[in-house]
Amino acid sequence: MTILEHHSLLPYNTFGLEAKARYFVEVASIEELREVLNNERLKGMPRFILGGGSNILLTKDFDGLVIKNSLNGIETIKEDDDHVWLKCGSGEAWHSLVLHTIELGLSGIENLSLIPGQMGAAPMQNIGAYGVELEAVFESLEAVDMNTGEVRVFTKDECLFGYRESVFKTTLKGQYCIVSVTMRLNKLPKFNISYGDIKRTLDDMRIWEPTVKAVSDAVIKIRQSKLPDPKVLGNSGSFFKNPEIPKAQFDALQAYYPLIPNFPLPNEMVKVPAGWLIEQCGWKGKRVGNTGSHSQQALVLVNYGGATGAEIYQLALDIQASVKEKFGITIVPEVNVV
User: Fold this and answer.
1) Which residues of 256-286 are buried (b: 16+ CB within 10 A; e: fewer)?
2) Does the annotation count 322 as an active-site position?
């Protein structure tokens, strides 16, 4: 384990942005993490846990310690007639993990195929796509207290999952490093193919009786058709969360915009697609300097090459302001701005 100084973070973020860390270290075990946390030279400075770099926007150099999470490993810790409990290191690449569960014949996260990033970010964000969220299969996680080095187990209830939210993004932000996650997956598939274009895509693929792999393949096909490959065009996927607004506010908007798409929620709330709001404000496909909103999906902000994090952040602020002015809705970034 080597502690590096003034280390470039360019290879570690999918936006393809240049920024430097004052100190940088990669850890592959809880013991190495504790060693870093107890290092006298590094104590007291800002610390940032870096996973797959797919959900961050680096707006400047980080004047502190960046800890790259490389805690890997997958093991079956329990099973019964219906389920398998899989414990995964937080440094495991998410999509590779999904493909591994499909090879094992397990169901539960196939709708979350091709989401970039690592296992550790999955509960932090409560990642979701096509009608499925991580919390549906989540059992527990282990996390290291960044101050004491002690390992704590968090149950599902203790994680306080919400829409792209958890306790690790709110009251406990920066206080813990997630080191492993346990999921309860299904031996017998329970398909969710009613959301989005999955059913139509399966039909186009001439698949009438879905399998776990077929659903995953359909999701991959849909995502590849709509979202740019970060290896080709720098981006972090969906930049904003879909806003949830009171039904009364939605009804008033619908009177002016009859075609506004919506998803009714409990407690008299309605989810409105942020991409649609952004597109209506004229941002879809619009380029501003070296950045812009993607031509196929307005929700994705991209780096056309040479953009800075500050430029992308300013674009996000301008988009926020225009959506607020036109619709009276505040859209909130899903991406972690550093």
Assistant:
1) eeeebeeeeeeeeebbbbbbbbbbbbebbeb
2) no
For this structure, is 334 an active site residue? yes
Task: Kindly give the parts of the chain with pLDDT less than 70.
Answer: 196
The reply to whether 103 belongs to the active site is: no
pLDDT tens-digit series, residues 176-229: 999 999 999 999 998 988 876 899 999 999 998 999 999 999 999 999 988 888
Q: What is the pLDDT of residues 55-93, one digit of tens each?
A: 899 999 999 999 999 999 999 999 999 999 999 999 999
Q: Give the active site residue among 47, 164, 184, 216.
A: 164
The architecture in CATH of the region 74-186 reads 2-Layer Sandwich (3.30)
| CATH of span 234-337 | 3.90.78.10
Report the topology of domain 4-69: 3.30.43
